[in-house]
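Sharing a chain and its predicted structure for anyone who wants a worked example. Both blocks are below, sequence first, tokens second.
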Amino acid sequence: MTSEMLALVDTGLRGAAIALFLLIALATLRQGRSQPAARLGALLSLGAAAYAICSTPGHAAHRSFWLAPILVLCTGNIVVFWLFARAVFDERFRPSVWHGLLWLAFAIWPLVWLAGVDFTDLSLVPIALRLGAIVLAVLVLVQTVKDWRGDLVEGRRRLRLFIVVASVLHTAITGSVDLSIGPEHVPPWLHAVNAAALATIAAVIAAVLLHANLEAVIAPPVAPPAPADPEEEPPSPALLAKLERLMTVERIYRGEGLTIGALANRLELSERRLRQVINQGLGHRNFSDYVNRHRLADARQALADPAQAAVPIVTIALDSGFQSLGPFNRAFKAESGMTPTEFRRTSAKTSPEGSPNPESARR
């Protein structure tokens, strides 16, 4: 294929990728109802569209300030990618000021370059940016595979593999190419392959995302159960009652290392079916959070019981199913807004002497 034909193919593929990424950004904002993950997802799609422009052969030769927004979106997008993965897969994550500063640390360099600063005098900057992008891509991969089995949202489990892992691989490969041969020496055929990869990723994301229940994938935890998948049989009351008995009467969560596989075996279900039961029948989105809610309720009841006032907190934590004191303290503080010691002290003041705190017992 001649260089002219390669350039034509490259341009067409990039145009298609840009159009699809813009469509994804609009659809994500429309369906996500301004959730943090939706805003980050839309920004990520805009950054991907900007990257399709920035990675065009010969773009580095143009220093025009009208390109500034595109260059900023492109350079800072790896940070947005990492934040998006955290927002989608870690429901306790909240963006903070330092995340914005990290994005600024990447995004400011195109403006410095447009101002006329020659990076040959700052030779470590391009290398640091590329290495930083690879590190963040690895962190995205870690965030993606962490607690994969415990994810109870089936749509989110399906989206993990392609939307995140494929994009991570693309980032890692392009970063490795830049580091090994440099962006100025990439052959035309490799640019065309890059454009084809972008168009393919955008097409698959669009096809999956625009037919998915996006609110169920990126929305924060809510009390009502998630809407049922029409292809799945709704959980029966008998099955929900059996699960409830295991958790509240037999207190299976107190056992060491309770996994979704072990609980599924006790119920004689597949892991996929158990995920659906807990998610659609009870409204929980993460298995660890579901189990920890029972453990924390158990611990609260013990801490509020005057008869157990002399029992060490670490003993209560271990009896409730936590493996060590540190994770227990963090989970308790996140759930109740106070430490276990503060909760015990408050309960002792508000409960009648010699009887458990009724509010704690009900939880």
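Comments welcome. The two ends are 69 Å apart (CA to CA).
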